[in-house]
Amino acid sequence: MTLDTLAIARILHILGVIIWIGGMAFVTLVVLPIAAKLPDSETRADMFERLERRFAWIARAAVLVVGISGTVMADGYGLWAQFIQASGWWLDAMAGWWIVFFLILFVAEPLFLHRRFSQFLRRDSDRALKFLTRAHWVLLLVSLCVVAAAVAGVHGY
Question: Are 16 and 59 in contact, with CB atoms under 8 Å apart?
């Protein structure tokens, strides 16, 4: 594998993480609070579902780019053995958190989460948006911790 391939993989990896985690931050900090303040339940549900439908594909693409580029880098830099060593804790954190989002976006969301949450949103948009906001805060805070861990780990901490 050439250095150019690894450089491109690293660039795509970082851009993918920025889009994925930055998008989640935008939804958590901007979209959900605005949706919660809309005057009626139907408007809240419609706005959220339109935005979610559009961003879901962006998030899925970003998560795929991160997974593929991460795999290319792990292979190209020979990092596979570090996944089972204590010093590779940050690699485990990144891969584990990626798996969580992969399962949410590619398995749970299309199979049952979207339908169930849509019903919950139509039935009680206040409670649904409060629940979703709390869940997004947890996902965002863990994501930021994993990003910080990865930066620390790659610099030897």
Answer: no
Tens of pLDDT along the chain (157 residues)?
676 999 999 999 999 999 999 999 999 999 999 988 998 888 888 888 888 888 999 999 999 999 999 999 999 999 999 999 988 999 999 999 999 999 999 999 999 998 999 899 889 988 999 999 999 999 999 999 999 999 999 888 8
In the DSSP assignment, the letter for residue 112 is: I
Residue found under tokens 């439908």: 53
Buried-state track 84-110, b at ≥16 Cβ within 10 A, e below 16: eeeebebbbbbbebbeebeeebeeebe
Answer whether 49's CB lies under 8 Å from 118's CB: yes
Q: Among positive and negative, which fits the CA dihedral 144, 146, 147, 151?
A: positive
Q: Tell me 85's DSSP state.
A: S
- Check residue 78 and give left, alpha or beta (phi > 0: left; psi -120 to 50: alpha): left
How far is it, in rounded angstroms, from Cα 136 to Cα 141? Answer: 8
pTM listed for this prediction: 0.90
Asked if 71 and 148 count as a contact pair (C-beta separation under 8 A), the reply is no
**Neighbour tally for 16: CB within 10 Å:** 20
Q: How many CB atoms lie within 10 A of CB 114?
A: 15
